[in-house]
Amino acid sequence: MNNSDKPILSHLNDFLDWIDVEKGLSSKTQENYGRFLKRFLDWLKESRLENIKPHELTSDHVWQYRVFLSRQLSPKTKASLKKTTQNYYLIALRALLNYFTERDIVSLPSEKIKLAKDKSEKQVRFLTLEQLEKLFSAIDTDKPSGLRDRAILESFFSTGMRIAELVSLDREQIKFPAETQELELGIIGKGNRSRTVYFSKRALSWLRKYLATRDDKEKALFIHYRSKKNASSRLTPRAIEKIMKKYAIASGIPLSSTPHVLRHTFATDLLNEGVDLRMIQEFLGHKSITATQIYAHVTSKKLREIHQKFHGGRRLKT
After folding, report:
1. Residue 242 near residue 226, CB atoms below 8 Å
2. Of residues 190, 226, 287, 304, which has the active-site annotation?
3. Which whole number is the average pLDDT over 68-75?
4. CATH number, domain 3-120, options 1.20.1250.20, 2.40.50.90, 3.40.50.720, 1.10.150.130
5. Is the predicted pLDDT of residue 99 greater than 60, yes or no?
């Protein structure tokens, strides 16, 4: 029996081997994928679809599975599964379909699986410092690729750069100052506008460690390690989005976390520390203050707390 004739249930172990060998995902991530996919495989059995083959899976099956997930209750809270939790299961199923594609096994395209939308999507999404710690801790920095990934995420949080700005950086642009100083770097951003970004001592520390592993002559600051012959090794925006998604899954932070969420986190952190919106506009490279004002509601609670503490006429005598 060739792979195309095997039921989907029979592919789980091969899939887990694939994300280990081909994708190099951590054992924790493999464990999570296995757990999320087990829910799908159990659903197949409950739906009497245990013998269904990859090419027999349809969009209607996926829809039925999504309905099933939406009606599941959390074992802890007894409430319906959150949209973000449902998406963990759907992303694992997407990964399985991507595995079929790479192994030339005919199946439903992964693009057919749409993630559940959260009502909060229109709001500015950012990470708390605790979530940031979880994200950074999920990276295995014993590996060169892990050092690279930590340097990437630290650079996002330190500079607030857009993903296109980060991937365009060249190694020669990083001139390490004294260890007690930050790095000011001039870049050309969106709309061909120039601005200065700042790498913290912490971000520079990880960049040093990452670049110490590089013995190549590649121009790009951030490269991938599996480039084809005569192809560019520079990481693409899509590749960095996948890196971020991998660690979001591994750390258990919201799946909506993207490189742009780190940009939001950068801005929100500064706002919470009292930095003026006009200054945030400069940091982010926004042409208009209108674009920066999306962060205003994020700090409304903080502003209310400050007002209650320092204002309200408490110093008036009459």
Report:
1. no
2. 190
3. 82
4. 1.10.150.130
5. yes
